């Protein structure tokens, strides 16, 4: 797995970044908005090889791939140079691949920046007058004309400029006045041009990713400087939290675009749909980002004194030249479920890789075989995503098979890598067995192994490792919610032990577990996070009361009461007042988990129902609007999965903490909620029932999704972490 560009690509990116940052001053950006084109900068871009990127080496080009061009286009989005950059570099490729020697002079002029080229996005045989990206400044336009691919020499009279939203040279070109030269004819030429338009979608999506991220960062930087009521406005969650959402969305554009290019390189069956989804997602995410950025700037954002308005205009102008982005979602649905063929580009090589590796695939195969051989119908009937789905005999069998604590050799595990561990979790969830009990048992086991007394290791750890015991978490309290450091449950010295008094809320699994990992207050004279101590407490100890709390998710949690509960000091974990440090001893188990698996299962269930629910003379899935909604859910699931992969990769590669984990958790839980609600609507009224199979799962997913935004830290907590770590904004919890 890899989420990093190569050193060569980084050098190229930096070269264009330096050029754009140096030249595109606020004054020049505004001048370009008036002119619609910057001829001097165009020539400098050509000198750096911008228009040679996709020209084959056999025609004296650089012979680079779509991903390299996408790296350039992200910088274009970040800095807003004017002109049809993506269109020209793709036009140069078409001329090189279709044209004979008669077009050599034209190709040389285009790649040298002496002539500007663009693409007609519709067949001129059907639309002889049509809007062309930066058509006002494009002397050359390549178009499909019925059964031929034609290079038009467009006179100025046929491309008269007019006022438009972004001042970027958008022009309705009259091709009837152009001078056509046939570049190619036949199926291969038509397919190459169609594939080029698909690549244009990807490069436009990449530009929107760069634009959106820059807009969010501009707003975040402004929020750090602008003061209101004596403090930076970035401290207000009303400012920072929407920007955290926007950051996830625009990062999703980048990752979904990368995923689409990777799918094309691998020949994946859903590659064509991913191309459509990437541009649809990018258009939506960028539009949301710029609107929120202007809101952050307040009235100043409406003025032309600040650059943010330029980003707001380009965010709409670039994708809308193709038409309503909603049509891209319908197109994706047709490509996914209607089996609509589409010629696709040869994207070349790219370094980005989402492959989970042989170790992970082997673990999936082993778990599949184990579950098929071991799970009885009675066990499966009990499966549930929560603690209530824990099956003690299956838990024991997994321990005996070495499948319980895969990544923890000190607990008898195999020491598999994070990718294999995540894959094993996905494999279990595919079988319907989420098994949170095993995850908590592993965390507690590691803490005992690393900070526990010999007595704890002998009496508790051996039972956990053997699969004979599990533990629950005693962190949350009725008044503290996600702020575990606000714990008020007291542990007071009593001879060689401690007396515990207090209440813990949401102690899930306490009714099933043998022990609870207890966070207690041992010092009230220091900062709240410094006065905490951790204990292992047997749940059958005198003075403990477990009271059930039922949720509408068919899940039981508990409120637990501790009345003068005695615990020997040997059952303490770590130092007195060192509870926070003890909690960190198992942090390697956290790699940005999210809810992509649950989202995928819900989508599969919705697809199943849509194929059986009648609709007129057909089925519900025959409707384009239905296919589009399913495609939208797929896009959210894929972005969620990519966030999880990125968080795992960053942990493995020891990359800086840029809130990748919180982004994975927060984004996936929020989108799970959105899509669970929509798919429940889509398949109603059947989805209202709890009939076995797909209907029950969709029904359950709607209820489950509400909890994902709360447990493990609420979305608000994670938004604050994203704003602080990824955008450099001030703390919002002061």
From TrEMBL:
InterPro entries: Acyl-CoA_Oxase/DH_mid-dom, Acyl-CoA_Oxase/DH_mid-dom_sf, AcylCo_DH-like_C, AcylCo_DH/oxidase_C, AcylCoA_DH/ox_N, AcylCoA_DH/ox_N_sf, AcylCoA_DH/oxidase_NM_dom_sf. Residues 195-319, 597-726 form the Acyl-CoA dehydrogenase/oxidase C-terminal domain. Keywords: FAD, Flavoprotein. Pfam families: Acyl-CoA_dh_1, Acyl-CoA_dh_M, Acyl-CoA_dh_N. Its cofactor is FAD. Residues 473-551 form the Acyl-CoA oxidase/dehydrogenase middle domain. SUPFAM superfamilies: Acyl-CoA dehydrogenase C-terminal domain-like, Acyl-CoA dehydrogenase NM domain-like. Belongs to the acyl-CoA dehydrogenase family. This is Acyl-CoA dehydrogenase. It comes from Novosphingobium mangrovi (ex Hu et al. 2023).
